[in-house]
Fold each of these.
Amino acid sequence: MIRGMATAVLLACVWAAPAPGRERSGSGGRTYALLIGLNYTNDSEMAGSRLRYSANDVEAIREMLLAYWGAAAADIDVLTDDENPDARLVKRRIAALANRAGPGDRIVLFYSGHGATDAEGRWGLVPYRPNRE
């Protein structure tokens, strides 16, 4: 589990998205995104807890960012089961996302996958091989 990270999925971009056919006004800056969708299809430790639609969720958010927020495809990083993402990879991608953005830019972090609490009751994201750092 990744400790110290907010587990709330940043969905403000979905709720604040303009209606189809309307432009977003006064946005300025670029939109950078990291979209994580884990079905756990390649993780034997999660065999009993696989998900079915996380990759679909990521694609829907990606399409929304492109269509309604004017994000450039090159500014959207997608992380799925294909890369067997462990905690280190997720942390590296989040750091890379933060390093790309500048003043006035927007950062979107979307996560669709499992979350869990640790022994101290703190919430976190569950990447591949959650018990290995």
Amino acid sequence: MTLSERLTPRELELAQAMHAGGTFATLAKQMGLSPNSVKIYASRIYDKLQIKGDSPRQQLVLMLEREKNGAAQVTQPSACAVLLTADRPEMTQQAVGCFRAQTYENKRLLIWESGERPACRQYCVEDPRIDYCFTSGYPPASVGSLRNDANYRAHADILIHFDSDDLSHPNRIAEQVALLQSSGADCVGYNEALFCTSYHHALIQDNEAYLYRNPNPSYAIGASLAYWRRTWQSKPFPDVSNGEDTVWLSGLKVCGVSGMEPDPRLICRIHGKNTSQKAYDALISAPKCEQVEAQWKRVPEWDSYCRKVAV
């Protein structure tokens, strides 16, 4: 039985409005109802559809998406982009925009913010697909520990690193889900990606593009990882802040592919607040170190592209 057969026309109208996003106060104004009437209608909808437990609105959204996309949606793995951030509200806003532009339907976003104060809650308002959590403490938790805490909260078949200082192509999630399914790998990611500078330095200027390439097909850049939740459950991240992804990948079946075809799937920004200074150190060392220079290449033909999308 379809939702239109289980709900009254007015209830179906509200359910579709809830799927589109908006607070109950906003929906009440759109439908000419009082906020209390909207809550009553919503309660009836949940009862009729047997929606129980936590996050009933999110469950409703998933039901509507499944019906909209037919049987294919039911078998489509759920994917959650996990966004770790701390004191980066402007960059986080851009990353949220990248998530909303993703073409993959069965997706969610979890913003896991740490730092001095909660600054990014505003970006999940009126979008039931986005969850938010702020955590603080001293001494601050390691990146590995934060990833584990966030992954535990992210209820999806596939978990995807969606760092706040990176920009993702609209097809990224769809392509990485498909690659996970077809490759049989535990984890997939990019072994080639575009990096863009975002601060001044004597040797590095703003909006300079660099191409990082590691030809090893069993290697993937940490910021680009997508993996099955069951893989993480069997092997959580180590409790460290630098190189937690490299340590974690050891022993897993990894499928690394280019993130530059047909155009950049991921732009990693190098700036003054990077958790790891590895990329910055590499760019400074490249002119002096043949091994580093082989992996990092200055690509001025991509400068204008970075300037356009990474502002």
Amino acid sequence: MITPPAAAIDLNADLGEGFGRWTLTDDEALLSVVTSANVACGFHAGDPSIMRRVCELAAERGVRIGAQVSYRDLAGFGRRSMDVPAGELADEVAYQIGALEVFARAAGSRVSYVKPHGALYNRTVHDADQAGAVVAGVRLAAGSGATGGLPVLGLPGSLLLAAAEAAGLAPVPEAFADRAYTPAGTLVPRGEPGSVLHDPDAVVARAVRMAAEGAVTAADGSQVRVAARSLCLHGDARGRPGSPGGSARRWARPGPGGGVRVRTLVVGGEALLIELDSAAEVAALHAELLRRRDAGELGPVRDLVPAARTVLLDGVRDPAALGARIARWEVPPLTETEGPLVSIPVRYDGPDLEEVAERWG
């Protein structure tokens, strides 16, 4: 197995944010990157057909399905703060979870967690009444006599997570790789300049630091601690990792045993560059790629080209999806044997070109 670094973290994104013929998020591209999908449940975006389609895609790719619940605010995309009575809000939260559960089950999956959206998310950071109503809705959706309910994603230190824990629900603190932070550890309001980051390299650098160091640089330059178990990427952010409009996409994926095993760079529409930490890891992954290709498990790949710290796969039909699959593999180490060092002269423009090409794929 390739030795992973110590950091591992879940990636979530808001999906299904459309209505009828209108769409905002590129769900297929994001589902090739994330491990958890926050699916809009019809109150801020999403309709029954969109919810069903996203659940099917998520189930096919092994991505967890989460209910992204909102105030009833289609016109304002759920970003307008509202004063909803606690009992009514609890009913609406349970309603949204139940609707999504129907489509998740039909796809062979289940709703795995709940996350508020937009204004409701921000309100539950400091409003005990609204936070308690969301938790009550999660408990209501669990059914009569249930002793628990679904995990709840929220901002670290929020009243929402405190209420969830007090009610016996699992609190899941999250951080935002593409949002600016205040020195207090809250999100800079979207109406302020610089509240959303659009540079993919900057977003990835922040995400890696959040996962590895548990820290982020706030808007004023101060350092803020972030104790997150999940990182959120906003599906409506321009230039996000996973955006099909970019020439390249870079992201790090946690493997099933924990940690980040490989780093992938999607180049153009048909090439995938996989970065590793050592030549031994390159050799191990290259051997596994050859084995799976010969077994028909890899899919169409025109060329496999190993180098000192990378493996290039060219002629790939869906490089983002393949990169996500490879990142979840358990790669066995190559067996080392002792013997004499043999030097083999190679001329890449000579008569041995065909032999070299056959040896390295």
